[in-house]
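[SOLVED] Predicted holo structure with adenosine-5'-diphosphate

Edit: marking solved, answer below. Original request kept for reference. I posted the sequence and ligand SMILES and asked for the 3D complex as structure tokens.
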Amino acid sequence: MERKLIDEKLENTDSSSELIKQSADEISHLAIDIGGSLIKIVYFSTNSKCSTNDEAPTLPKERQEVPNGDLNHHILSGGLHFVKFETSKIEDCINFLSSKKLQQCGAQCHHSHAVDKIKIKATGGGAFKFADLFKEKLGITLDKVEEMESLVAGANFLLKAVNHEAYTYIGGRKEYVQIDQNDLYPYLLVNIGSGVSMIKVDGDEKFQRVSGTSVGGGTFWGLGKLLTKCKSFDELLELSHQGNNRVIDMLVGDIYGGMDYAKIGLASTAIASSFGKPVSENRELEDYKPEDIARSLLRMISNNIGQIAYLNALRFGLKRIILGGFFIRDHAYTMDTISVAVDFWSKGEAKAMFLRHEGFLGALGAFMNYKDGNADLMPLQLVEQTPKSSSCIVDRIHNSTRVHENESGALDCRLRVSSSFKIYDEVKRC
Ligand SMILES: Nc1ncnc2c1ncn2[C@@H]1O[C@H](COP(=O)(O)OP(=O)(O)O)[C@@H](O)[C@H]1O
Ligand SMILES: CC(C)(COP(=O)(O)O)[C@@H](O)C(=O)NCCC(=O)O
């Protein structure tokens, strides 16, 4: 999978050059989400490995007319790609974008010979913080899209359009959930990035941020770094696999002489106090195993988020809690802890669901913001049609269009692009 490959590459010091070598594809649209910890990029390229079919051949160089006779639009076939960088290594991201030659093939280049007219959709705090840097180093203007709006648009897109996107994680098993588009709302979106935002989503552009907590992914990684000396987030996660939280956490049984506190529904093995054990032990930090600390930390933060999410779901009578953000990282113990917390507190009434493109909600939402109606903006939408051949792209399930992932991890899809935006003419002129 491309995402895995890129993550591995980023572990290496010369990672960005490796990544750049693989990236000779032609980009027509690109959006960026610059968060407190990570930069996420979603781009559409026409050179993806998507199989072709007679109705919609892959087209690096030509425009296609929409078969329904809409002469104002063209179709581009290709793949949506997902890339991430650590925000602290923003230079890698700049080099990557520079290698993509956006100046030439442009996300949105309006005027010939005017490098500084390139605009890309950008969200997250970094769209403000790094605006000058992008301008200075790449000549790119960041066209800001509000962060919560982007998260919601990204989540809605994934839930409606992408096949096998949402799943529950129960008893160590992923179960994919096919959500009926007519029965998607309302739901609680919980985005676990550096901090956590909780958003009640009632419709396509109808939402309200109802809560949040500063105890999130940044807390796990920051505290973990201090307490275990791990050098990377993935190392800390890996370490947590081998740990035993009972060495660090004070359990109900530790307080109740090994017994359950049955009257209030607490088993002896339930955590009474996260990180509570060292209080009564005369030991130093070095006397505890880093893996046990990592495990307790992960459990404490996941549990806490699961509980706050449940309380907010309860507040608004929501049954579905959809979780995104890179903290989750498709990590079994994290998902299990959150699922168990939601199930326990809601007595099975609410369900926690995870997303395969968990960390890219904001970037996807910003990408979706390239919309019609403004001559300065590139009109864009995913085309809803079924290819004749079964090879890839989209299929219809329950009357809706679904997008598939190809073997490189990109989402095969097609974009409908207004004729008024002449991508390839602009390429030549820029
Ligand atoms: N390679 C990584 N480096 C740093 N943090 C990571 C990494 N992979 C996953 N994470 C986790 O993801 C969190 C950031 O998630 P993300 O959704 O990208 O939020 P933000 O928008 O705040 O950057 C981090 O706080 C950390 O818990
Ligand atoms: C400020 C943020 C929206 C920024 O998003 P992030 O970069 O963490 O993804 C987020 O960190 C957050 O919601 N923090 C919690 C703040 C609070 O409600 O207390």
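OP edit: The chain has two domains: 24-47+72-107+114-164+359-388+408-429, 166-248+288-355. Thanks to everyone who chimed in.
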